[in-house]
Amino acid sequence: MTVSVIPQRPPRHLRCAPRRYLLDAGATLWRVHSRAYDATTFNPSGAVHDPFGGGRFDSTDADPYGYYYAGLSDVTALVETFARDTPFNDHGYRLLKRHALKDRRISAVRTVAPLYLVDLLDGAALAAVAQDPALINAEGPAYAQTRAIGRWLRGQALWAQGFIWPSARDLGRPTLVLFADRQAGPALSPVVSRQIDLDDDPGADWLNATLAPLRIAVRRSPHRR
Fold first, then answer.
1. Coil, strand or helix at 148
2. Largest CB tally within 10 Å, which of 16, 82, 103, 139?
3. Structural domain contains residue 101
4. 188-197 and 104-111: which strand pairing?
C-alpha cells in the first residue's frame, strides 16, 4: 500500500479518543541540545513562520507552547537530530560535518513523575485520531501540516503532555515531544553523570562508536590521525 507523504486534514466533525501512552516515572530520555541550555530546558514557545523549517510538532501562532523533543535511546536522539539530511556517500557511510556538532551535547534525563502522551506508535493508534503513517513519516516540506494536526490533537486530548511515535530514522524505537504548558517540565530531572559533549575528540570517538551500526560517522579533528 502506498502511503501519502502529505498528512490528512483532520475530519471537521470528529471528536476522537486518542490512545494514551503512559511513560512511567523512572524512565530515561535522551536529548541532544545546545550546551548553553540545561538538559531539561524546553524550546521556547514561538511560532515557526517558515513552512520548510522547524520540527514536526513545534508550536504555532495559533497554539504557542514550549516543546521538548527526546528519544528513549541515545541512538534515537542522535539520528533524529543529525541524520535527517545526511545521505550515504559512495563508500556507504553518512558523514556528519564537525560544525553540525558545535556546542552540542547529548544528555540523559530521568522522569520523576508519570507522563501521559498521545500514542501514535502503530496503525490502530493513528486511526484513532483519523491519521495514517504520513503524520509521522512526512518530512520537512509537510511540517506546516503536521504542526496544524498537532494543534488539533492537543485540542482533542487536553490531558496529553506530549506525543510519542516511532522514529523514521531509528526504526522501531520511539521518539517523543513534550509540552511545557501541560506540566511536563516538572517531571524531568537531569542525570548529570550521563552528559557527553559531542564537539570534541572524545565526543566524536563516542559518537562514532555509538552510530557505527548505522554507518554514520564524524571526522576527527585535522590534527588527529
1. helix
2. 82
3. no
4. antiparallel
From first to last of its 225 residues, the chain has per-residue pLDDT tens of: 344 578 888 888 788 999 999 999 999 999 999 999 999 999 987 656 565 667 899 998 889 999 999 999 999 999 999 988 788 999 999 999 889 999 999 999 999 999 999 999 999 999 999 999 999 999 878 998 999 999 999 999 999 999 999 999 999 899 999 999 999 999 999 999 999 999 999 999 999 999 999 999 997 666 554
Whether the CA torsion 115, 137, 93, 172 is positive or negative: it is positive
Q: Give the range of the structural domain holding residue 39, as residue numbers without chain letter.
A: 20-74+108-197
Number of domains in the chain: 1
pTM: 0.91
172 φ, ψ (degrees, to nearest 5): 90, -10
